């Protein structure tokens, strides 16, 4: 199909990996980012860059008035803990900003939308592994903001013909498998970049939030997925929308869980560095275990994770944190 692809948040962590893969496949890409979390070194020189904010109608009009056929949406605040103390920030940017984007897409007759959602929409699991039919009951406001967007997408599909792919991630991690992206995350709150900042000496140590969960070693278990695997899924989702003209909602995970202490131990083994940590109180809204089944993603997209083993994850992160 003719037309350009707009990637909001395309200079950020996940967005930059998707941009890189889109450019690799020969697509005409526009990065749209306000650079609050984006990094200049992540901007692919093959893509056009527009500095702009999803809260600005003028900025969006400037970007969308360029023969756009598909929008990938990564522009969001994503720290679950922060969302519990500053929900207004997340409501304004994540929810209002996305509705603003959707309204401008409709105005510009753009009807393909690939959305970066989150496993946080599920909250505490009722059963494991979690599939797409699992009840949604977010345990933090960040997760609620993603669920609210999904609900609005369903209405925009029904009322305005916007076909969407909502992809629910389970802990994005790692770096470009070919070593081409080097921009570190700004103010990371996720486990793996924090672990690597300790390994690199950027932080003196780290906190482990609780070691009294009902898990093998007492720490939380999560499903970690390599960002290159995520990028592949996004491109497959775009292809699905083009071929089927039908919306979809999918989990993206590995089906395998790893504890916080297992992550720290593996990172230490891969890097050869000590990673000191202190056990502190649990965080509000942290379920003991989150593991996904991605059977639907395989059935519909023929997608499954290829690079999401812990050794590969930390080897690709080491290239960024220890060698750059």
Could you list some keywords that capture this structure?
7-stranded parallel β-sheet, globular, Rossmann fold, 39% helix, single chain, alpha/beta
Structure explained in plain terms:
The protein is of the alpha/beta class and 324 residues long. The protein folds into two domains: 199 residues, NAD(P)-binding Rossmann-like Domain (Rossmann fold, 3-Layer(aba) Sandwich), CATH 3.40.50.720; 85 residues, UDP-galactose 4-epimerase, domain 1, CATH 3.90.25.10. The protein contains ten helices and 14 strands. The strands form four sheets. Strands 3-2-1-4-5-6-11 form a seven-stranded parallel sheet, with helices on both faces. Strands 12-9-14 form a three-stranded mixed sheet. A two-stranded parallel ribbon has the order 7-10. Helix 6 packs across helix 10. The longest helix has 21 residues.
């Amino acid at each position: 199909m003719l037309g350009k692809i707009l990637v909001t948040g395309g200079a950020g962590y996940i967005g930059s990996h998707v941009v890189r893969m889109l450019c690799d496949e020969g697509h005409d890409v526009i990065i749209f980012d306000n650079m609050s979390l984006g990094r200049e070194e992540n901007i692919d020189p093959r893509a056009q860059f527009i500095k702009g904010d999803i809260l600005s109608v003028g900025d969006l009009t400037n970007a969308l008035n360029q023969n756009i056929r598909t929008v990938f949406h990564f522009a969001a605040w994503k720290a679950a803990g922060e969302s519990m103390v500053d929900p207004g920030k997340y409501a304004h940017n994540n929810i209002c900003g996305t509705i603003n984007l959707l309204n401008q897409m409709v105005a510009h007759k753009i009807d393909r939308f690939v959305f970066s959602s989150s496993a946080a929409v599920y909250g505490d699991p009722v059963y494991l592994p979690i599939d797409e039919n699992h009840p949604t009951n977010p345990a933090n406001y960040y997760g609620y903001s993603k669920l609210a967007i999904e609900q609005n997408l369903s209405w925009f599909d029904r009322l305005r013909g916007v076909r969407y792919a909502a992809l629910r991630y389970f802990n994005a991690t790692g770096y470009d498998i070919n070593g081409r992206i080097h921009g570190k995350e700004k103010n990371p709150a996720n486990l793996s970049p924090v672990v690597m900042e300790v390994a690199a000496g950027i932080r003196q140590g780290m906190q482990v939030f609780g070691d009294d969960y009902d898990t093998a070693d007492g720490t939380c278990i999560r499903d970690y997925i390599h960002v290159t695997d995520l990028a592949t899924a996004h491109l497959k989702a775009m292809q699905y929308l083009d071929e089927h003209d039908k919306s979809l909602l999918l989990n993206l995970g590995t089906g395998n869980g790893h504890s916080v202490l297992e992550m720290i131990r593996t990172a230490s083994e891969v890097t050869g560095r000590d990673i000191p940590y202190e056990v502190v109180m649990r965080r509000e809204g942290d379920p003991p275990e989150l593991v996904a089944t991605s059977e639907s993603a395989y059935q519909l997209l023929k997608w499954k994770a290829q690079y999401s083993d812990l050794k590969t994850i930390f080897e690709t992160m080491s290239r960024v944190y220890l060698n750059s």
